[in-house]
């Protein structure tokens, strides 16, 4: 059952505020989208995620670009490509601190969570590279989200997909928790060895 536009905007506002309050994004960075048939609602560029209202979101076609793309998030192409290539109904792009750090420390292209929750729900977290809002990044991210719940863009942030914004938020928070625990464990191991 499709949500009403009113309910969708309420969900954008709720999870935008949660993302900021939990430190997963700075207010003016990151973006959120919801698929609705062959359309998607996505936050506009420069919107403060903790102050979302009906003017903060733009509706776009998934299959083709339009002149409205210029006011939508700079990551619109990534959201579009994920919707085209995965069963995702919602996407959250955040900039969690420890996820970004771990993406730059990883020696291969995946991070393996050490915590039970991360291991159970995520198994592993792919790290992809690409320029912000580029077709290459869009392709790599959508490919990774075909088989994983969340992905980290090297030095940039996370993309999490779900059936609901609640699920996408949960994945975003779990990726960050997993990266934070790994960072501190690795740091503790290094201090013991020295």
Automatic annotation (TrEMBL):
> What is this protein identified as?
L-fuculose-phosphate aldolase
Alphabetical list of Pfam families matching this protein: Aldolase_II (PF00596)
Annotated Gene Ontology cellular component terms: cytosol
Gene Ontology biological process terms in this record: pentose catabolic process
UniProt keyword terms in alphabetical order? Lyase, Metal-binding
Give the domain of life.
Answer: Archaea
| An annotated Gene Ontology molecular function | aldehyde-lyase activity
Annotated Class II aldolase/adducin N-terminal domain residues: 10-183
- Native species of this protein? Candidatus Methanoperedens nitratireducens
